[in-house]
Amino acid sequence: MTSSTGAIRATAAIAAVALITSCGVPTGPDSFEEIPDQEVPNRLADTTTTTTTTTTTTTTLPDAPATTLAATTTVVPTQIVEVFFLSRGELRPIELAAQSPVVDTELILLLEQGPVGPSAALLDNQIEEGLIIDTVAQDGILTINLDEEIFDDISRQDDQREAIGQIVLTFLLGLRGVGQALFTFNGSDQNVSVPTGNALFTNQPVSVDDYASMRVDVGPALADDESDTEPVGGPTSTAPTNTAVTTTSTGSL
Questions:
Q1: pTM reported for the whole predicted model
Q2: pLDDT in tens, 48-70
Q3: Residue 101, preceding bond cis, omega within 30 degrees?
Q4: Could you tell me where the beta strands, DSSP code E, fall in the chain?
Q5: Torsion angle in degrees (nearest 10) through CA of 208, 214, 217, 220
Q6: How many helices (H) and strands (E) does the chain have?
Q7: What integer pLDDT is reported at residue 194 of this predicted model?
C-alpha cells in the first residue's frame, strides 16, 4: 500500500513540471523585465508624498477685571489747646489744634516750635528743643523731667521763670487729670527748685495759680498791635472736634 502511494506522488510531480514547461513561464533572475513608468496603469509608478498637517489652537483668556481703589477717609479727632508764649515777660496763650486726647509729647512739640499765627513775630519763647525730656503723671501731679544743661543755659533768672511758667500753664491746662507740677533734672527722683511767678523758689508742687501774676489773657499781644486780640483764657475746652483727612487712590491695578 505504501509503494503504491509513493508511485502516485512521483507521477504527479513529473506531470506538474511538464505542465509548467509546456506553458512557457520564465523562471530565474533573467526572466524579469522592467516596465516603463508611462506603461504602468493607474499611476502606480507615481512617487508617494507624505504630508504632515500641524494644527495650532490659540486660546484667548478674558481680560482680568480692573481693580479700582476707592477713596478712604480717616477721621482724626482734634481739640484746641492753649500754648503759652511771652509778650514783654508776660505769659500769653495762643490757641492751637492738637490731636485728641492731647498727650505730653504733642505739647512739647508745640512749645518747641514756637509761636505761630498773626502775633508770632511779636511773641518770644524760652523753650529750647530738648529742654523737656518727658513727663509722668501720678495722683494728679505731673512730674516734668528737664535737661539740666539746657536749663542752665537759660542764664537769667527771669528767663528761667518765664520758661517754667510757659511749661506749667501749657501742661496743666492742656492735659487732663493733673492740677500740679513737679520738676526733676535728667530723670533723677529728686525734685529741683524752680522759680514761681513771684520769683520765689520752691521744690514743692506748683499750680496754675503760682503763675497767675504773669498771665495775660485779654487784649492785644503788644500795645502797638491793636488789631490782634487773643481769645479769652481760662481752662482749655476739651470737647474734641473731628478733622477729616481724606486719602484718595483711584486707578486700575
A1: 0.61
A2: 555 556 666 666 666 766 666 66
A3: yes
A4: 72-87, 90-99, 132-138, 141-146, 180-185, 194-195, 201-202, 241-247
A5: -160
A6: 4, 8
A7: 96
Question: 503760682: which residue's cell?
Answer: 210
In 26-182, which ranges are continuous DSSP H helix?
Answer: 104-113, 148-153, 157-174
Distance of CA 234 to the CA centre of its chain: 39
Q: Sign of torsion, CA 88 90 91 96?
A: negative
Type of residue at 185: F
Q: Which three cell numbers stand for residue 229?
A: 486780640
CB 154 within 8 Å of CB 126 = yes
Q: Give the integer Cα–Cα distance in Å for 59 and 41.
A: 48
Beta strand 141-146 pairing with 180-185: parallel
Mean pLDDT, contiguous 10-residue spans, the chain (253 residues): 56 53 54 62 57 62 65 83 95 94 96 91 95 97 98 93 98 96 96 95 97 80 41 42 49 46
Q: For residue 85, which of 166, 181, 4 has the smallest C-alpha distance?
A: 166
- Contact status, residue 91 vs residue 211, Cβ threshold 8 Å: yes
